[in-house]
Amino acid sequence: MDPKYIAQLKQKCKPGDTTTLVEMDPGSFKTFDEDYYTLVTKRRGLFESDAALLDDAETKAYVFHQASVHGSTFEKDFAVSMVKMGRVGVLTGNQGEIRKHCAFVN
Hints:
Elements: H1 3-12, H2 35-41, H3 48-52, H4 57-68, H5 74-86
Helix pairs in contact: 2-4
Protein name: peroxidase
EC number: 1.11.1.7
Domain Plant heme peroxidase family profile: 1-106
């Protein structure tokens, strides 16, 4: 994570503070847009999962592409992804399990 961003977050969130809210997408947190990718390229994501997007070469290339073209394909790509997720068969009851640690079968 960007050290300057860490310092900004520490100014907002003091130890023990459980009431302060921090936007996941500062500057455009009220809109659903591509600015998220720009923040991730600057190492300003709040979560480990944001940073992990830069660990895989293909995903990293996609993130940097979206940041450089200002999300020109973001809405189309998002729609395609949602359709794909809708096709995922969710296992219920005895058909599957909720893993206690996602990398291992219970």
